[in-house]
Give the backbone structure.
Amino acid sequence: MPDAFDPTPADRFTFGLWTVGNPGADPFGGRVRERISPVEIVAGLAKCGAYGVNLHDNDLIPFGAPAAERDRIVKEFKKALREHGMKVPMATTNLFSHAIFRDGAFTSADARVRAFAVQKAMRAIELGVELGAKTIVFWGGREGCETEAAKDARDALKWNRECMNFLCAWSKDQGWKLRFALEAKPNEPRSEIYLATTGHMLHFIETLDHSEMVGVNPEVAHENMPGLSMVHAVAQSMECGKLFHIDLNGQKIGRYDQDLRFGSEDLKGAFFLVRLLEGTGGYPAYTGPLHFDAHAYRTEDVAGVWDFARGCMRSYKILAAKAKAFDADREVRQILADNRKLGASHAKAITRFSKAAAMRLLAESFDAEALAARGHRYERLDQIAFEVLTGVRR
Ligand code: DIG
Ligand code: MN
Ligand code: MN
C-alpha cells in the first residue's frame, strides 16, 4: 500500500553497487544468494524509488579487464542508467581487494604500489566522470598496520598526502569540477587504520595543497564502531563546509563493521542525525546524495535484499517526518527559545576581543550560586523526542 514514506528520486537516495549486490558472504561462510548484476541493480533500485547508484571501479569492471571489455561493460551500464533514469553521483576506487594492496595503497612502503594505486584511482575517476559523478570518495581500507614496527606513521601520512595532492592536481588539470570526499574508519580490515575518524580527516584535509576541493564522507558505522558520535562528526563537517557526501547505515557499538540497514540500530542516533541533515532545527540542510553504504542480513534471499533497500529509504523518510514534528512542537520550541535567551545580556561579552571587553569582563562579578541553580529542561526535551519517535506524541 503506497504511503508518504515511499521513496522517490526527489529524495536523493543512492546505493553502492556493492551494497544490494552483496551476495551475503562473510569471513566464515561463502555467499548465500545469487549476485545481482549491475544492470539488474540499476533496474531494481529504480523500481524501489532510488535516485542513483554509486560504484567502485571493480564493482563494474573486473580488475585488469582489457580496454575493449571495459568499454563494452560501460556502454551496457550507461544504457541501463538511461533506461531507468538513474544517476551516478559518486564513484570510488577499490584500493583494498587485490593482494597488491596487502600493505596499503597510498601508504604502502613500496613506492611502486603507491604509484600503481594512484594510476588505478586516475582510471576510476575517469570512469566516474564518464558516468556523471561529481564526487569521488576515497576509503583507505588498507591504509594501516598490524605492527608499528612496519613504518613510521608520519611516513604513511606523508605518502598519503603525496598521493592525494597528485590526484587533486591531476583532476584540476583535467578541468573537472570534482570534489573528493575522504572516508574514515578506525580498523578492519587492518588492525589500525590511519586517519581513523572524520575528525582526523578534517585535519588531514587542511594539510593538502588543494584542500578546497577535498571534504569528508562520514559513515555511521565507522564513527559508531569506536563508540563515537556520528551526529557530532557530521555537525563539525557541516559547520566547516566539508560534508561532501555521507554513508548511512546502522551499527552496534564495539562490533565489527556491520553496515546494517539504516535506522535498524540506535534509533535515537539515527533520528538526531536525520534531524541534522534535514535542517529542521534551524541550520541549513545537507543537499547532497543520501547514500546507504549497507547490506542485507546474510539470512536474506534476493527478495530480502530489496526489503532491505526499501527499509533504508523508508526509515530515513519516517525519521525526517519525526524530526520535522519534533522541531515544530510548541513545547520543544519554547524550551529551546528559553535556553537561547539565557544570559542574553552577556551574549556578546566574549564574541570579539577588545581591551575594553577584557576590562569589562574582569570587572564583572558573577553570582555563581544563582547561575548554578538553573536547570535546562533537557530531560523534558529528550522525553518529547522519545514520545515523538514512538508515536505517542504527534
Ligand atoms: C566502506 O565503508 C567504503 C567502501 O565501501 C567504499 O569505498 C566507500 C564508499 O562509500 N565506503
Ligand atoms: Mn562500513
Ligand atoms: Mn562507507
Notes: Residues 268 and 386 are 8 Å apart (CA to CA).
